[in-house]
Write a structure and sequence with these properties.
Blueprint: H1 9-28, E1 38-39, E2 45-46
Antiparallel strand pairs: 1-2
């Protein structure tokens, strides 16, 4: 069995989590605390503090 080429659903979720983390760090200037939930502009939320 071989993996499908290109990013899949897991890759997309990882990229959204990365964007949420970057957004939080840009705003706060540091890594988020454990309880932080970040909202991306398109409305999705990520538990950035435990990601």
């Amino acid at each position: 069995m071989t993996a499908a080429p290109g990013p899949g659903k897991g890759g997309e979720a990882f990229q959204e989590g990365l964007r949420a983390l970057q957004q939080c760090i840009e705003r706060e200037g540091q890594m988020p605390g454990r309880a932080v939930v970040e909202r991306l502009p398109k409305g999705s939320e990520h538990r950035t503090g435990i990601w």
